[in-house]
Design a protein that fits this description.
By secondary structure, the protein is of the alpha+beta class. Helices cover 50% and strands 10% of the residues. The strands form 5 sheets. It has a 5-stranded mixed β-sheet. Strands 4-14-11 form a 3-stranded antiparallel β-sheet. A two-stranded antiparallel ribbon has the order 5-6. It is globular.
């Protein structure tokens, strides 16, 4: 166990360097951790986190009015309840399931192939910067029906919006930058929305523009908020999950070899990656009434942060929870991408992530493409691995070396 600072803080450099080192300490000693600088409570036990996420009346998403709505330019799905939530969630879910999902996976393969091509002959690539981040944006733009040529600009705006949502503290300058990004993205989207209202297609923006709730179409503000909601939810975790998957497999060559022999194990590898190193580490809620956890009262009105990374490593929920094991009996691959998942990486309950099935299909499709091409894949010599992020977390970079491939097919000799 690490030596605790005089006053432990989740905002400390020690915690930021490796939050998983502190998980057991939090669960065992302070399962309800109060953070004075944020006037918020952090829950780390699996049973407490699940309780908060499934009781949407006692723990609401009111915090998102401050944390998300200013940059989403309107209410997001997680803020909605009742008939409105059911109707609008259904519209979004339809875009990520069934035949729509099959069409999207064809686009994913095309996007991935185009991005990958320049690096194959070189035998080296940063899986985060060269491939994962641009792929996540390209794929999301395709789903929305936005121009792929604008991806760098959209990615820059997305970065500011994600920073606003995921930062625990923001300077006035950074806050202004993030809000500027949101305003510019909104200005970019409004003419698109206007065109899709006149000439709808098969893309998600068109479906949002033509959908009705209680017989009334959605306003431009409603549509804008849902577009940005999808952009952030689809793009933010995707590159992190892909890089984390490859990091775990490279670190466990026996399991990498198994997945190479049997690509049917990819679903289990992705699910275990999400459990062990969830890209979304914190999910906020607001307590609507005084509630007791582990003998500590969380007062009504308080912000509660569900610590997904700590909950997913709770030995009360998982055997040998700090180990990466694609054959884990207590995970259940089939249910790991549904509301019945034992891990909490997609949330759970009413506001479980709408894109869970899409996330699985995207990462599985891309990984199944990459594994046969990245022969003898390993981390670049001398590379020092580092993760970053408190709210969302993933590798800063992941430079890989592999046997180069001629685009005509076949290896081109060892990478130098």
């Amino acid at each position: 166990m690490p030596v605790a600072p005089t006053r432990f803080s989740v905002l400390s450099e020690e915690f930021a360097a490796d939050p998983y080192r502190w998980s057991a300490r939090l669960r065992e000693r302070t399962p309800v951790h109060y953070e004075p600088a944020l006037d918020s409570y952090f829950l780390s036990r699996h049973e407490d986190v699940r309780r908060v996420l499934t009781d949407h009346e006692a723990f609401t998403t009111e915090t998102l009015q401050v944390r998300a709505e200013p940059v989403m330019r309107g209410p997001v799905l997680a803020q909605m309840t009742g008939a409105e939530h059911t109707a609008k969630r259904k519209i979004v879910v339809r875009a990520f399931t069934g035949t729509a999902l099959q069409d999207q996976m064809r686009a994913v393969r095309a996007n991935a192939a185009a991005l990958l091509a320049p690096f194959l002959a070189r035998g080296r690539m940063d899986l985060v910067g060269d491939f994962g981040k641009p792929l996540a944006i390209h794929v999301t733009l395709d789903v929305l029906g936005l121009e792929r040529r604008d991806w760098r600009q959209v990615a820059a705006w997305h970065g500011g919006i994600a920073e606003f949502i995921t930062s625990m503290t923001l300077t006035p300058e950074r806050r202004r930058h993030c809000l500027d990004c949101a305003e510019q993205l909104e200005a970019y989207l409004l003419p698109v929305i206007e065109r899709r209202r006149r000439h709808p297609g098969e893309d998600l923006i068109s479906k949002l523009c033509t959908a009705e709730f209680d017989g009334i179409g959605m306003s431009d503000r409603d549509v804008t908020a849902l577009i940005i909601n999808v952009l952030v939810a689809a793009a933010e975790p995707a590159d992190k999950t892909l890089a984390l998957l490859f990091k775990h497999l490279i670190d466990h060559p026996g399991q990498l070899a198994e997945v190479r022999r049997d690509p049917g194990l990819l679903g289990a590898a992705i699910a275990e990656t999400l459990r062990l190193t969830p890209p979304v580490q914190l999910i906020p809620r607001q307590a609507e009434q005084d509630t007791v956890f582990a003998g500590t009262t969380v007062p009504a009105g308080a912000t509660v942060y569900c610590m997904i990374g700590a909950a997913n490593r709770d030995p009360g929920a998982f055997t040998d929870p700090d180990s990466f094991d694609i054959h884990r009996a207590d995970l259940g691959t089939a249910r790991s991408f549904t509301a019945a998942a034992q891990h909490l990486s997609f949330g759970t309950g009413l506001h479980q992530c709408v894109g869970a099935a899409f996330a699985r299909a995207e990462i599985e499709t891309v990984s199944a493409m990459l594994l046969p091409l990245l022969d003898e894949v390993r981390l670049s010599p001398g590379f020092r691995y580092r993760e970053a992020g408190l709210y969302t977390r993933g590798p800063v970079s992941l430079p890989l070396v592999f046997t180069p491939v001629h685009l005509g097919g076949g290896p081109a000799g060892p990478a130098v």
